[in-house]
Amino acid sequence: HPSESGFTTDVLALYDWVKARSGNSSILFWGHSLGTGVATNAARKLQEERGVQVDAVVLESPYTSIREAAANIPITKIYRQFPGFEYLILDSMARAGMFFCSDENVKVLDCPLLILHAEDDGVLPPELGRKLYETAHKAYRDKSKVKFITFPEKLGLGHDYISFNPELPALVK
């Protein structure tokens, strides 16, 4: 079964593989949606357990924790009013060992961190990206390493299409 620790272990194995073959190239972790929790987990583990810092972390359509994401995604809106929502939905992820606490992870990172969120994200509210940014910005000693970029609703990027924005390469640089 997929697990939070399994995802993180897989990313670290991939990091090792890429690092062995990349020479002096920069390596960054780029997570989208659920993958943002995996990216912050892996970056934190790399830093704390190996004393190695990834060159940068990019989080596209992120959340603070999987629990808060599940509590705020629009599809759960109709279920939130029913008794047992927290136990059946939110607590079940915790019982399965799924936490993905990006908000806790970014507090200890020291690498450059770029958070991207579209204002018209219909899956993960942009407020979660903003909250994650504020947590990181407060924790980072060097505030210039933390950036938050929002994309206006008129671009129609939603949850899945930030990567289609032609300005993205320049923004990431």
UniProtKB/TrEMBL annotation:
Origin superkingdom: Eukaryota
Residue runs in coiled coils: none
Cellular component per GO, a single term: endoplasmic reticulum membrane
Any GO molecular function: phosphatidylcholine lysophospholipase activity
GO BP of this protein: monoacylglycerol catabolic process; phosphatidylserine catabolic process
InterPro entries per record: AB_hydrolase_fold, Hydrolase_4
Leader sequence residues: none
Domain named Serine aminopeptidase S33: residues: 3-72
The name this protein goes by in its record: ABD12 lipase
Organism: Cinclus mexicanus
